[in-house]
Amino acid sequence: MITLPLSALEVAMVQTGTRAVDTLRDTTAFAQRLDALGYRRLWYAEHHHSPAIGAFPPVVLTAHAAASTSAIRLGSGGVLAPNHSPIMLAEQFGTLAALHPDRIDLGIGRGPGTFDESTARALRRGAGPTTDDGYRDDVAATLRFLVDEVALGTLPEPWLLASSTAGAALAAELGLPLAFAHHIRPDNTLAALEHYRAHFSPSAWCERPRVLVCVETICAETPEEAERLAGPMNVVKAGLLKGLSEVPFPSPAEASAHPFTAEERQALAGFLAHQAHGTPETAVGRLAQVAEATGADELMLVTPVYALAARLRSYELVMQHATAPDYSAPDSKSSTK
């Protein structure tokens, strides 16, 4: 049983045999269904030049989804600070928050969103990789511009995304809610959250430590179907283990014929042990275990499966078998500063 709010991360996988525009069209139906199901928030990830993930700007998807839904919170999970001017981020998300009061989140991350160095340089207009100090300055400047320059009233709720203790430390220093990428670096989760809570400094944005944990969740009526649905993403992960970034997102049938090595199967099994795959009882049970182990205030589900219908069914099954949280309860200070 889960008594925490449940949210979702949209990574917009472009399926083999389809076009990016098909994935883009699916995002609207996805947002509307999650809104109806009662998920608290839906975030969009920033990616570039990938054969498996659509390069759809989070700010654009957020604006479109906000106009076609009524209650679910929407935002970035995240926009990547090195790729954007702080004042532009403040203006874009400040405008969205003014148009859709108390529904917009600004999740900020550090990575380039691409494995291609030429793409990373193009995003940064030729600048080199960001430093720790540069990233901190960009995040702080974005927060400052939100207050000092935008002045549109209700502000977006800022979050810092992290997959390491270093990122968690910055969230603690700046007094921001922390969204931790357990679906990427599960081995880092507990140490990072411990550091965040121990070193948190209250701020105008957040009075106490707040933790959202993102978990890869694939739920189906049978264990066999859940395993089948997980196959395409397992192929992508196996490619990443080999250092291959140009791996398309295959169909389940194509994935079932993929020749995984023994080492890849071992690595995938180790990763799966930290996530939530299986029947509703198994997946919800695993989510409850993650929530208890991490002390999370909220869980975010990422479900990278082939076909919109199967992805939505996974979210439906989880919500049906989890205890519905009280979404009306305030979870932070007022977002007007």
UniProtKB/TrEMBL annotation:
<comment type="similarity">
    <text>To bacterial alkanal monooxygenase alpha and beta chains.</text>
</comment>
<dbReference type="GO" id="GO:0016705">
    <property type="term" value="F:oxidoreductase activity, acting on paired donors, with incorporation or reduction of molecular oxygen"/>
</dbReference>
<dbReference type="InterPro" id="IPR036661">
    <property type="entry name" value="Luciferase-like_sf"/>
</dbReference>
<keyword id="KW-0503">Monooxygenase</keyword>
<dbReference type="InterPro" id="IPR050766">
    <property type="entry name" value="Bact_Lucif_Oxidored"/>
</dbReference>
<dbReference type="GO" id="GO:0004497">
    <property type="term" value="F:monooxygenase activity"/>
</dbReference>
<dbReference type="InterPro" id="IPR011251">
    <property type="entry name" value="Luciferase-like_dom"/>
</dbReference>
<keyword id="KW-0560">Oxidoreductase</keyword>
<dbReference type="InterPro" id="IPR019949">
    <property type="entry name" value="CmoO-like"/>
</dbReference>
<dbReference type="Pfam" id="PF00296">
    <property type="entry name" value="Bac_luciferase"/>
</dbReference>
<feature type="domain" description="Luciferase-like">
    <location>
        <begin position="17"/>
        <end position="297"/>
    </location>
</feature>
<dbReference type="GO" id="GO:0005829">
    <property type="term" value="C:cytosol"/>
</dbReference>
<protein>
    <submittedName>
        <fullName>Putative monooxygenase</fullName>
    </submittedName>
</protein>
